[in-house]
Write a structure and sequence with these properties.
The chain is mainly α and 295 residues long. It is built from 12 helices and 2 strands; from the N terminus they run αααααααβαααβαα. The chain has a domain of 121 residues. It holds the Pfam family PEPcase.
Length: 295
């Protein structure tokens, strides 16, 4: 288990060092020293060191007004980067998903063990109806610009995982990581204005573009392959086990700003977003990949 998580710990350490370099370059070594002191005292306090716990409380209480915000931001940014490393670890070749790749097959075998016939399982698959609902509530507090930077950090970790990288390629990726972390540090994390219903709808479209566009088809392909392996069965071409629904631009529960005009605007915006330049680029990339595999 320790070996399984060593890569994740290494990535966390690398990202933390780059963040520390950014803080030092921007605010000076004294702020970085204060952050490191708090981090180390927190770690030893959690391990049960009572003296360090008292020193930690004293250190926090004695932070000056000028130190409060940068110290808080330092830990906020570090947690963001740690989350990226953990998320990448969960899907990386050496991560948790790779340690149990046959989860769907195991599920089918457990159902068979409950005396369900293959035909019953096929019928259940054909009746599957899963709805993914995009809500209008602004539950995502992170700004989209910051989210995009963190997504690229994840991509850099993926690139660094290749063992055949040349030294100059690894240096280029590390340089880009340093740039992204510096950009994130200088990005205002707090929205100055409350998002409008249209802004919330655009955020939902971004979720489709950045996550669901590839994630849902990938899952369905894997699901279909497991069905073929375990049940000698493929889902019908016309099957639509996963559907998307949305409250965006139409949720009037306590929001007087959602008017008929807003709903009309968002409805008209959806086809524009789904056929806009970014989805078009994705479809073009998908087509080129299909063409390359076919020749």
């Amino acid at each position: 288990m320790n070996e399984q998580y060593s890569a994740m710990r290494s990535n966390v350490s690398t990202l933390g060092k780059l963040l520390g370099d950014t803080i030092k370059d921007t605010l000076g070594e004294h702020i970085l020293d204060r952050v490191e002191k708090i981090r180390k005292l927190s770690k030893s306090s959690r391990a049960g060191n009572e003296a360090d716990r008292k020193e930690l409380l004293s250190t926090l209480q004695n932070l000056s007004n000028d130190e409060l915000l940068p110290v808080a931001r330092a830990f906020s940014q570090f947690l963001n980067l740690t989350n990226v490393a953990e998320q990448y670890h969960s899907i990386s070749p050496n991560g948790e998903a790779a340690s149990n790749p046959e989860v769907l097959a195991q599920l089918i075998e457990r159902l068979k063990a409950k005396n369900l016939s293959d035909q019953q399982l096929r019928d259940a698959v054909e009746e599957l109806s899963i709805e993914l609902v995009l809500t209008a509530h602004p539950t995502e507090i992170a700004r989209r610009t910051l989210i995009h930077k963190l997504v690229e950090v994840n991509n850099c970790l993926k690139q660094l995982d290749h063992n055949d990288l040349a030294d100059y390629e690894r240096k280029q990726i590390m340089r880009r990581l340093r740039q992204l972390i510096a950009q994130s540090w200088h990005t205002d994390e707090i929205r100055k204005h409350r998002p409008s219903p249209v802004d919330e709808a655009k955020w939902g479209f971004a979720v489709v573009e950045n996550s669901l566009w590839e994630g849902v088809p990938s899952f369905l392909r894997e699901f279909n392959e497991q069905l073929e392996t375990s049940l000698d069965y493929k889902m019908p071409v016309e099957a639509v086990p996963v559907r998307f629904t949305s409250w965006m631009g139409g949720d009037r529960d306590g929001n007087p700003n959602v008017t008929a005009d807003i709903t009309r605007h968002v409805l008209l915006l959806q086809p524009l977003e789904s056929h806009g330049p970014v989805p078009a680029r994705r479809r073009g990339a998908d087509f080129r990949a299909f063409h390359d595999r076919s020749h």
